[in-house]
């Protein structure tokens, strides 16, 4: 009995790739050079059989039911503590925003000073661009930081 079961399992294992394979795909090219693909053998006269590899698939598992409850040992924070944490976070973000705004104003002032100096002293345009580039990058960095902080504040509770 064991031999028959083993033989049957081996036979099924050998045949399964052939049984689960997709149908044959034929590529047909007409006189104008237009390509057409078909899987119907009777329409495939004069067409070329494509060799298409079996798709690499993984069987899906059973979807797990989402539980609304957290595990028993999951740490919990009471609402007052969370409100305090959210308020602290907002306060820190606002302080960072104010600090970043000051740095942006300072960077813009430095850039304006450097730009006003270029009118009389620099004749080489590329040298002027190279000299101003770090100041532009500094302004851009602070503008990006401010935009990010404002997004964070918008999403804060």
Structure characterization notes:
The protein has a three-stranded antiparallel beta sheet, with no helix packed on it. The protein is built from three helices and three strands, in the order αβββαα. 59% of the residues lie in helices and 8% in strands. Helix 2 packs antiparallel against helix 3. A hairpin with a 5-residue loop joins strand 1 (25-29) and strand 2. The protein is flat and about 80 Å long. It has helices spanning 2-20, 79-121, 125-155; strands at residues 25-29, 35-38, 48-50. It is mainly alpha-helical and 157 residues long.
* Mean pLDDT rating: 82
Strand order of the largest sheet: 2-1-3
Q: Write down the Rg.
A: 35 Å
- Low-pLDDT runs of 5+ residues are none
SSE topology string: HEEEHH
Name the overall outline: flat
Helix amount: 55-70%
Ends apart, CA distance between termini: 68 Å
What's the β-strand tally? 3
Strand-pairing-aware structural class? mainly alpha
Number of helices, where a helix is a run of at least 4 consecutive DSSP H or I residues:
3
Largest sheet: 3 strands, antiparallel
Strand content: 5-15%
């Amino acid at each position: 009995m064991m031999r028959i079961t083993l033989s049957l399992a081996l036979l099924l294992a050998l045949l399964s790739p052939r049984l689960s394979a997709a149908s044959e795909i034929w590529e047909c090219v007409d006189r104008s050079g237009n390509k057409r693909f078909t899987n119907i053998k009777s329409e495939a006269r004069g067409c070329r059989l494509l060799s298409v590899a079996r798709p690499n698939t993984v069987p899906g598992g059973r979807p797990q039911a989402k539980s609304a409850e957290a595990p028993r040992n999951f740490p919990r924070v009471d609402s007052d503590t969370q409100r305090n944490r959210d308020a602290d976070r907002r306060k820190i973000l606002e302080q960072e925003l104010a600090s970043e705004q000051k740095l942006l104003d300072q960077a813009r002032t430095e850039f304006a000073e450097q730009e006003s100096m270029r009118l009389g002293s620099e004749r080489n345009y590329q040298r002027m661009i190279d000299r101003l580039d770090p100041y532009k990058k500094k302004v851009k960095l602070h503008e990006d930081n401010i935009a990010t902080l404002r997004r964070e504040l918008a999403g804060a509770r």
